[in-house]
Design a protein that fits this description.
- The complex is a heterodimer of chains A (about 140) and B (about 90).
- Chain A is mostly helical and about 140 residues long.
- Chain A has a domain at about 1-90.
- Chain A contains 6 helices and no strands.
- Chain A has helices at about 1-25, 35-55, 60-85, 90-95, 110-120, 120-125.
- In chain A, helix 1 (about 1-25) packs antiparallel against helix 2 (about 35-55).
- In chain B, about 85% of the residues lie in helices and about 0% in strands.
- In chain B, helix 1 (about 5-25) packs antiparallel against helix 2 (about 30-55) and helix 2 runs antiparallel to helix 3 (about 60-85).
- Classes of the chains: A mainly alpha (about 140), B mainly alpha (about 90).
- Chains A and B meet through helix 1, helix 2 and helix 3 of A and helix 1, helix 2 and helix 3 of B.
C-alpha cells in the first residue's frame, strides 16, 4: 500500500515538473514582468521536487529544500529589481550622462539646450548654419 | 515491472525535460534568468541523483545531493547579492 502512495507522489511530481517546464519555455518574451513570472513558475518546480523527495523517503532533504527555496526565489527577484528591472524601477529608467566639460567635441545636452534657448534670435542669423555654394561654369 | 520503479523512471525523464527547459531559459537576455536557470538545473540534478542512486546502489548519493541543494542555494544567494549591489 505504501508503495502505491510513493508511486502516486512521484507521478504527481513528474506531472507538475513537466507543466512547469512547458510554462518556463512557452512564456512569451513580450509579456510584462516575465522574469517574475518565471520565478513564480520555478516555485511550482520547487514544490514538485519537495513532493518527489517525500515520495522517495528523504524527509530531511525535503525539509531543507522547503526552507531554502523561497530564499532563493526572493534573492533572484530582488537582484533583478535592483539591477535590471527597467519596466518598474524608477531609478533605472533615468540614464545619467557623464560628459567632460572640457571635451572639445562632446557637450552636455542641458548646456546645449540652454545655449540654444538663450540665443534663439541670434541662431537664425548664425554663421554656424550658413550654406555655401560653389558656382561652376560648364565651359570650364 | 514494479510500479514504483516505473514512476521513478518517469520522474527522471521529467527532470531531464526540466533541465533542458532551464538550460534554454538561462540563455535569455538578463543575468537573473541565467541565475534562475542554473539554480533549477542544480536542484533538478540533486533530485535525479537521489533517484539514480537508489536505483543503482551508488554510495554517498544522499550526501552529494544534500551538498548540491545546500551549496546551490548558497551560491545563488551570493551571486544575487553581488548582482543587486549596495542599498542606496
Amino acid at each position: 500500500m505504501i508503495e502505491y502512495i510513493k508511486a502516486a507522489l512521484l507521478i504527481i511530481a513528474a506531472i507538475l515538473i513537466i507543466i512547469s517546464a512547458v510554462g518556463l519555455i512557452s512564456l512569451s518574451n513580450t509579456t510584462k514582468n516575465k522574469v517574475y513570472a518565471r520565478i513564480h513558475i520555478v516555485g511550482l518546480f520547487d514544490i514538485a521536487c519537495i513532493i518527489a523527495l517525500i515520495g522517495l523517503g528523504q524527509y530531511l532533504l525535503a525539509g531543507v529544500y522547503f526552507i531554502l527555496s523561497p530564499f532563493t526565489a526572493h534573492a533572484i527577484a530582488n537582484a533583478y529589481w535592483k539591477n535590471e528591472d527597467r519596466e518598474n524601477n524608477v531609478d533605472l529608467m533615468t540614464v545619467e550622462e557623464e560628459v567632460d566639460e572640457n571635451h572639445p567635441f562632446i557637450h552636455p545636452k542641458e548646456k546645449m539646450q540652454a545655449l540654444e534657448s538663450e540665443n534663439s534670435e541670434k541662431l537664425k542669423a548664425d554663421d554656424r548654419f550658413s550654406v555655401t555654394t560653389i558656382e561652376i561654369d560648364e565651359e570650364e | 515491472m514494479d510500479i514504483l520503479l516505473i514512476s521513478e523512471y518517469i520522474l527522471v525523464i521529467a527532470l531531464i525535460i526540466m533541465m533542458l527547459a532551464a538550460l534554454r531559459a538561462s540563455a535569455y537576455k538578463s543575468t537573473s534568468m541565467g541565475l534562475l536557470g542554473s539554480s533549477v538545473i542544480v536542484n533538478a540534478f540533486a533530485v535525479a541523483l537521489l533517484i539514480v542512486g537508489s536505483l543503482y546502489n551508488l554510495q554517498f548519493f544522499r550526501d552529494i545531493s544534500l551538498a548540491l541543494i545546500f551549496f546551490g542555494f548558497v551560491g545563488t544567494v551570493a551571486f544575487a547579492v553581488v548582482l543587486g549591489g549596495d542599498d542606496k
